[in-house]
Write a structure and sequence with these properties.
alpha/beta, 9-stranded mixed β-sheet, 11 helices
Length: 314
């Protein structure tokens, strides 16, 4: 046993892997294990992992055939022994005290998970850029811990549906059977939002402790052109989870609004010919299947998104 298991899926990130690993190896919290899951890299990523493993006994390496970050995270999750779980993408990096601060917050509030602040590191500027939407503090209660029913706006927009800016209690994850979807993109949304609606004790740490690299070219988001349907599969799986938890009736309006938001974000950020393919699928089937079609004007929280939806449906 150790305090935290850090799980890092690794795929062809030789340019950034050392910075990522250094940010974990040099954490002020020492009682950790570092599980690196190589997802079939064809560059020198594995030899970099082996070089670090020789210097640090806390590092474990798992190698698998290329199956995506979701499958890689699940492989790490299966062998993790820590009291808490931290997930880090191999082109991103942590502040040196991230694990210690998040761990202490989790322990203080006996939290199922802790959410902390993050920013973006833009490669072109070689500079950090603040992002306000990663944690909507105005929607979070002024006390801790809290559950989703205490959030004052759309539950699914209070935090972002990625796992690397959160620290999860492992016993909570196992008890609620939380796993990552084994698909190319949007593979952490089901895990993150299922945790959000099943957690009784959530805590936040309003401090930037993680940095997401943007514009590096090796980022996981580059594969979205080939896996444009993954967001829909994630939304469908989330709906099933909400139904099985018996809370879909309570969260349906939040869900439908988030489904519209996420569908439009995916559509607006895709190039041709994928853009047209997705638009046809949304208007022909998916808006209906996600429960968006046929809802009255007043049902939607964001007027601009609703207007774009109406325009697409013409």
């Amino acid at each position: 046993m150790c305090k935290v298991s850090v799980i890092i899926p690794v795929y062809n990130v030789e340019k950034y892997l050392r910075q990522c690993l250094d940010s974990v190896v040099h954490q002020t919290l020492k009682d950790i294990e570092i599980i690196c899951v190589d997802d079939g890299s064809s560059d020198s990523s594995v030899s970099i992992l082996e070089e670090y493993k020789k210097q640090d006994a806390r590092i474990q390496i798992i190698c698998q055939k290329n199956a995506g970050a979701g499958a890689a995270r699940n492989a790490g999750l299966r062998i993790a022994k820590g009291d808490y779980l931290s997930f880090l993408d191999s082109d991103d990096f942590f502040e040196p005290d991230m694990l210690e601060e998040a761990y202490q917050t989790a322990e203080t509030y006996q939290a199922d998970f802790v959410v902390f602040g993050s920013d973006q590191f833009h490669m072109d500027k070689q500079d950090f850029v603040s992002v306000s939407w990663v944690m909507r503090m105005k929607d979070i209660p002024p006390y801790m811990p809290f559950g989703y029913r205490q959030l004052t706006d759309n539950v699914f927009k209070t935090f972002v549906g990625w796992a690397w800016d959160k620290l999860y209690k492992r016993s909570f994850v196992l008890e609620h059977d939380l796993w990552f979807q084994e698909q190319r993109t949007s593979n952490d949304m089901l895990f993150v939002f299922s945790a959000l609606v099943t957690a009784k004790r959530i805590a936040v740490l309003n401090k930037v402790l993680a940095h997401q690299r943007r514009g590096g070219g090796a980022s996981l988001s580059v594969t979205r052109e080939k896996s444009w349907h993954c967001f829909y599969d994630a939304l469908t799986a989330l709906k099933q989870r909400l139904i099985s938890e018996g809370i879909f009736w309570e969260l349906e309006q939040d869900y439908v609004n988030y489904a519209l938001h996420f569908s439009l974000w995916n559509l607006n950020s895709l190039a041709e010919p994928t853009h047209t393919m997705l638009q046809e699928k949304l208007c022909g089937e998916w808006f209906e299947e996600l429960g968006i079609r046929g809802k009255p004007d007043g049902y939607f929280y964001n007027q601009k998104e609703y207007e774009q939806y109406l325009e697409l449906m013409k």
